[in-house]
Amino acid sequence: MGVCRDGAENRLEEWGKLKMIQVEHLTKTFRVAKRRAGFRSAFRALWSRQYEEIRALDDISFTIRDGEMVGYMGPNGAGKSSTIKVLSGILTPEGGTCRVNGRIPWKERKEHVKHIGVVFGQRSQLWWDVPVMDSFFLLKDIYSVPDAVFRETCTELTELLSLEEILKTPARQLSLGQRMRCEIAASLLHRPDILFLDEPTIGLDAVSKLAVREFIKKLNHEHKTTVILTTHDMQDIEALASRIILIGKGRVLMDGTLSDVRACAKDAGASLDEMAAALYRAYEV
Amino acid sequence: MKLYWKHLQMHLQSMMQYKTSFFLTALGQFLVSFNVFLGIYFMFQRFHQVAGFTYSQCLLCFAVTLSSFTLAEVFFRGFDTFASCIANGEFDRILVRPRGLVFQVICKKVELTRLGKLLQALVIFCYAVPNCGVEWNGIKILGLVLMVLGGTVVFASLFVLYAGICFFTLEGLEFMNVFTDGAKEFGKYPLGIYGKHILVICTFLVPYALFQYYPFLYLIGQRSEAGFLFLPLLSCLFSIPCYLFWRWGLRHYQSTGS
Question: Is the CB of residue B6 less than 8 Å away from at least one CB of chain A?
Fold first, then answer.
């Protein structure tokens, strides 16, 4: 009996190594208070409140291999951020399983988050009033990164993201593009195997966008970091993602490459955004 | 602990960016509680005694409650402002860091401007301790320290409880102030003066009386059981259900959209 089980476990482990992220039948619903506009209905809602169940994730399954760069695409409210939040251990789903590096994110949170980096494009993780470098030092201690490794990583990131000039500036005085570069650096200080990027190029100018894209590509190439990227910017997807997962209304609609997306667009000369729009319309999401 | 110190340094560093604001807030905090002090002072100008307790004895109670409330505010402010922590998504950030959640929430905010209030409490202690007619000895001083610490734990637990409710709703949480700020006002006087029912509530439901009233009775010699001095330790047990409630709320955490 014992031998049998060990064998099975080993096989599972090997499988897990090849497939960095396995998501199976993930579901998550949110309960949202529903009420109509106006004072009277607000008043009524004081006593009886109606809730609406929103299925943010509805039976989502996919696997992502080691070192892949995946673009996670979908219209607003499709469940992109929710998936990222489940995968990074922030949310607990109601149903389904999910293993990242063989761990269940919401059950082994502390161990799990040591190996991932997360960038929320719309939220900062830097300390507002102190120089960026001080935030980095604090992160070093939070993740207990050894001195030598930290120095090396820092030098590399500083060079690749050209942070030299801005590390001594307090975060509140940085431009959006500068801040985003620092955010990305901050989430890579502990050398994660997986990087989640939630709208990393939102609001950036052309130069910063290109710099960020270039960096992500290099990171994936040199460190084999698995990158999962949600964005509305189709050019991000074109530049970065070798694979696209399209979701809408909490379901996986398509899992393929950019050329699959192109095939959906009837008009060959269509721009990337038009293709995306055509795709969303085709799936009625 | 080293990591907490690092966080503290960051807070200090941030605060030094806004020097004037820091000193003004600290001064404001001092003045606010000074008002309360004046309130008690003027009352005793007229009455001299409240339910058999002298002015200095009441001040001792007030100082215990104020200092423990303030200590809780300084170090557990992260839980007190937990609603905003959830609303602006900072809690998501906390969840993706490989450290204990409670520890991180505590680190999130250290409210050093409250030191003005703490100073106030110290001043009152300095006045009340020699004047309240207690014959101080080693064990009684230890008892007083326990009262303050026990109170800090109780108020901190209330903040944790409040934070636990934040997982379910972010609205209408003002009522929790009855238990925190309200208790602070309440605690100006020995809790026994409010009557038996209130005392029962303050003993068994939210154990304010365990750190403020009973040990105090022993200090001023109304009761002789030395065990009363160690009741504040019992009040620390209040933290357990509060913490469990918070953990339970955590499982219902829904995050906020972005």
Answer: yes
Which residue in B254, B255, B256 has the most chain A C-beta atoms within 10 A of its own C-beta, making it the best mutation to test that interface? B254
Task: Please write the tens of the pLDDT for every residue from A175-206.
Answer: 988 999 999 999 999 999 999 999 888 888 88
What is the model's pLDDT at position B133? 82
């040591």: which residue's tokens? A114
Chain B residues in contact with A42 by the CB 8 A cut-off are none
Residues of A in contact with B92 (CB under 8 A): 85, 90, 120, 123
What is the residue extent of each domain of chain A? 2-125+187-282
Interface confidence (ipTM) of the complex: 0.83
Instruction: Please check whether residue B134 is in contact with residue B220, taking contact to mean a CB–CB distance below 8 angstroms.
Output: yes
Query: Which listed CATH number (3.30.70.20, 3.10.129.10, 1.10.3210.10, 3.40.50.300) goes with A2-125+187-282?
Result: 3.40.50.300
Q: What span, in angstroms and rounded, lies between the C-alpha atoms of A200 and A213?
A: 9
Q: Please state the pTM of the whole predicted model.
A: 0.85
A120–B99: do the CB atoms touch at under 8 Å? no
d(CA A184, CA A181): 5
